Automatic annotation (TrEMBL):
<feature type="compositionally biased region" description="Basic and acidic residues">
    <location>
        <begin position="340"/>
        <end position="352"/>
    </location>
</feature>
<feature type="domain" description="N-terminal">
    <location>
        <begin position="24"/>
        <end position="127"/>
    </location>
</feature>
<dbReference type="Pfam" id="PF08401">
    <property type="entry name" value="ArdcN"/>
</dbReference>
<dbReference type="InterPro" id="IPR013610">
    <property type="entry name" value="ArdC_N"/>
</dbReference>
<feature type="region of interest" description="Disordered">
    <location>
        <begin position="322"/>
        <end position="352"/>
    </location>
</feature>
<dbReference type="Pfam" id="PF06114">
    <property type="entry name" value="Peptidase_M78"/>
</dbReference>
<dbReference type="GO" id="GO:0003697">
    <property type="term" value="F:single-stranded DNA binding"/>
</dbReference>
<protein>
    <submittedName>
        <fullName>Uncharacterized protein</fullName>
    </submittedName>
</protein>
<dbReference type="InterPro" id="IPR010359">
    <property type="entry name" value="IrrE_HExxH"/>
</dbReference>
<feature type="domain" description="IrrE N-terminal-like">
    <location>
        <begin position="206"/>
        <end position="274"/>
    </location>
</feature>
Length: 352
């Protein structure tokens, strides 16, 4: 403790620094999600919604065959669209590229004066107009063959992509991993290594409530592994398998855990901007009923309390004076492929 301040004064200063750090995170995320790049990427994704399971299988098998014959450069399809849809995006299907045959829905217009009665709906003709007061809805009435092409079969304007988290590189502060590992053990969980992200369904780390385990992948630099462990410890402190927000509104839980990781890292002089800002922005944007900024603001009190609790439990060298590392550097545009906590299936644990 510094000679010129009391312990309560130091505690208040530390709380104020964490509050400032959270405000800077909020500002950085707001700048990102209101930017033109983010808007274009969201609009693009909305036009390329996922297709039916049957069509997904058709696309996948035909793309695999095209890859085996050297017609496409990658084994897995990504963005798939029709000929004119690609033209609307400023891209053109390459000469000689065969499309993938799928089933396109055929819809019809139906009208009813009493829409709550299922038997009251009648199909309208091609040019028929509904009667006064009738409700009109479109329904799928069949399917027809259609062709689509993967983005790798086209050339033209760049595809807008959302900023993605980039793994940290280098070494973490001395003792931080060990201190976080002790917290995991103190809470009755066991810490395990995972060989890679594939082992964790695409994640960097996973907390499993029922098994009381925490896994962190080993094929990352020390700084990335330590930040990941701080994120999982944030889950341990803030969430559990009965937590509605953690299970139903997963975005809130991910925002909280990553914000805790940011504060723990910053208190030790680590800069996690390149991972934290895109990660938090993506998850905060998925919470229904409120904006990304509102989600982050709503987590401030819980995040700060958790971070202070963890910092008190860590026997590590922490920044004492001066401001914590800021989040004021420009957001770098990347083309990295670091996963953003996506899961091919729902799992019982929480992860990052």
């Amino acid at each position: 403790m510094r000679a010129d301040t009391t312990f309560p004064q130091q505690a208040a200063e530390r709380q104020a620094k964490l509050d400032t750090l959270h405000e800077k995170l909020t500002s950085a995320v707001e700048s990102l999600v209101t930017g033109e790049d983010w808007r274009r990427a969201i609009e693009f994704a909305a036009r390329f919604r996922s297709r039916s399971f049957n069509n997904t299988l058709l696309i996948w098998t035909q793309h695999q065959a095209a890859f085996e014959h050297g017609r496409v450069p990658t084994p897995l399809p990504s963005h798939v669209a029709g000929y004119r849809q690609w033209q609307s995006q400023g891209r053109q299907v390459d000469k000689g590229q065969a499309g993938y045959l799928i089933f396109a829905p055929v819809t019809g217009r139906f009208a009813s004066s009493t829409p709550k009665d299922p038997a009251s709906w009648r199909r309208l003709g091609p040019a028929e107009k509904p009667a006064a007061g009738e409700t009109v809805r479109s329904r799928m009435v069949g399917a027809k063959p259609a062709y689509v092409w993967d983005v790798t079969q086209t050339t033209g304007d760049p595809i807008p992509e959302l900023p993605v988290p980039r793994l940290l590189t280098g070494q973490a502060p001395a003792g931080l991993w060990d201190g976080l590992a002790r917290i995991v053990a103190d809470r009755g969980y066991t810490l395990h290594d995972a060989p890679d992200a594939e082992y964790l369904d695409g994640a960097n780390g996973v907390t499993h409530w029922l098994r009381k385990t925490v896994h962190v992948r080993t094929d990352m630099d020390d700084a990335a592994r330590t930040r990941t462990l701080a994120h999982e410890v944030g889950h341990l402190l803030l969430h559990n398998r009965d937590d509605v927000d953690a299970v139903v509104h997963r975005g809130i839980a991910e925002v909280e855990a990553e914000s805790v990781a940011l504060m723990i890292a910053a208190a030790h002089g680590m800069d996690t901007d390149q991972y934290t800002i895109p990660y938090v922005a993506t998850w905060a944007s998925r919470v229904p009923g409120q904006s990304a900024v509102e989600t982050i603001q709503a987590t401030a009190a819980r995040v700060r309390t958790a971070a202070l609790t963890l910092l008190d439990q860590l026997d590590t060298t922490q920044i004492d004076d001066g401001a914590l590392p800021s989040l004021t550097k420009p957001l770098a545009r990347t083309t990295a492929s670091e996963p953003v906590a996506e899961r091919p299936r729902r799992r019982e644990g929480r992860s990052l």
